[in-house]
């Protein structure tokens, strides 16, 4: 294999099934070696064995519960010290979709750890190496739920809004370094996350709202190839997203001022 073909190593969290396993498949076929992370060692091994035999790439696995600090630190160590790492896919995540007042608070706490703390720490661990090598990408799997203000979406949507925000700000910090940061906002995608959340996907959504996982990941990678910083695979017209960004940016001059707005009728010092 020539150096030109060697793209480095992609580290993918939550790679034992679903979106993560599909990224593993696509990135191996693009010429990346892989480090796959998840809790279920048997499923990870099955994904790794198939990809080794089908693509000839080097595929390692790390069995880790990323909500456990000692396991998380093992992955952070790899990201800090393995100079072949060129891509991090922050994909592992869970979705609890219950009203806050009746939700299991310990489950929510784990979800906040997995969906927020983990991608933050892993990005922090990989960034210095990527920037010093002036190449590579961090792909953060957020969600369209980051945009939906609806019951049951307090914490899950909040974690995904955080990941989108982190990605957008990180882009302003690494711009020009040769490192890409992409937030991917999938809509309903056919994976086990739905049954794990107690939801029958086909009963919950009409067929025209459900995307197959291969199509979702292929679109997200096409978005990465074209330099998108935010990829919404379903969205027909990216101008719709840009209007939201422009409206937000238009608020900026008025978000911090010396006196309250006049509608509050607060007596201000002359
Ligand atoms: N499917 C959708 O409709 C959809 C839409 C928008 C965004 N997303 C996001 O896409 C990402 C992947 O979701 P998916 O649909 O592919 O879910 P999935 O099929 O349930 O897969 C989740 C993956 O995360 C791993 N994982 C879960 N908890 C973990 C932990 N504590 N430590 C390490 N790995 C853990 C699971 O493996 P183990 O059980 O082996 O650990 C599995 O590989 C998530 O961040 C999700 O929020 C999904």
What does this structure look like?
The protein is of the alpha/beta class and 270 residues long. The chain is built from 9 helices and 7 strands. Strand 5, helix 5 (154-174) and strand 6 (180-184) form a beta-alpha-beta unit. Helix 1 (18-29) packs across helix 8 (213-225), helix 3 (69-81) runs parallel beside helix 4 and helix 4 (105-133) packs parallel to helix 5 (154-174). The termini are far apart. The mean pLDDT is 96.
Give a concise summary.
The protein has 270 residues and is α/β, with parallel strands linked by helices. It contains nine helices and seven strands.
Main traits of this protein?
Rossmann fold; 270 residues; 46% helix; alpha/beta; binds NADP nicotinamide-adenine-dinucleotide phosphate; seven-stranded parallel β-sheet
Oligomerization state? single chain
Query: Could you say what the CATH architecture is?
Result: 3-Layer(aba) Sandwich
Number of domains: 1
> What small molecules does this complex bind?
NADP nicotinamide-adenine-dinucleotide phosphate
Topology (SSEs and partners):
Layout: E1 9-13, H1 18-29, E2 33-38, H2 41-55, E3 59-63, H3 69-81, E4 85-90, H4 105-133, E5 137-141, H5 154-174, E6 180-184, H6 193-196, H7 201-204, H8 213-225, E7 230-231, H9 238-251
Bound molecules: NADP nicotinamide-adenine-dinucleotide phosphate.
NADP nicotinamide-adenine-dinucleotide phosphate (NAP) binds near residues 43 and 143.
């Amino acid at each position: 294999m020539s150096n030109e073909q060697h793209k480095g190593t992609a580290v993918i969290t939550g790679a034992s099934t679903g979106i993560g396993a599909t990224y593993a498949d696509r990135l191996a076929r693009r010429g990346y070696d892989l480090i796959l992370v998840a809790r279920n060692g048997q499923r990870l091994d099955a994904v790794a064995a198939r990809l080794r035999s089908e693509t000839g790439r080097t595929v390692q696995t790390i069995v880790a519960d990323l909500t456990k600090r000692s396991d998380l630190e093992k992955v952070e160590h790899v990201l800090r010290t393995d100079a072949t790492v060129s891509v991090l896919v922050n994909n592992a995540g869970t979705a609890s979709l219950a009203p806050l007042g009746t939700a299991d608070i310990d489950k929510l706490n784990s979800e906040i750890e997995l969906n927020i703390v983990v991608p933050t720490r892993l990005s922090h661990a990989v960034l210095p190496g990527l920037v010093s090598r002036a190449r590579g990408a961090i792909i953060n799997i957020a969600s369209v739920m980051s945009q939906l203000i609806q019951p049951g979406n307090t914490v899950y949507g909040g974690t995904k809004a955080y990941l989108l925000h982190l990605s957008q700000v990180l882009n302003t910090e690494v711009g020009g370094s040769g490192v890409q940061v992409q937030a991917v906002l999938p809509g309903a995608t056919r994976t086990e996350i739905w049954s794990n959340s107690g939801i029958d996907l086909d009963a919950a959504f009409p067929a025209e709202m459900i995307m197959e996982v291969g199509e979702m990941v292929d679109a997200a990678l096409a978005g990465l190839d074209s330099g998108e910083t935010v990829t919404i695979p379903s969205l027909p017209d990216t101008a719709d997203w840009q209007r939201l960004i422009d409206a937000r940016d238009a608020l900026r001059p008025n978000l911090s001022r010396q006196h309250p707005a006049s509608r509050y009728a607060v007596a201000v010092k002359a």
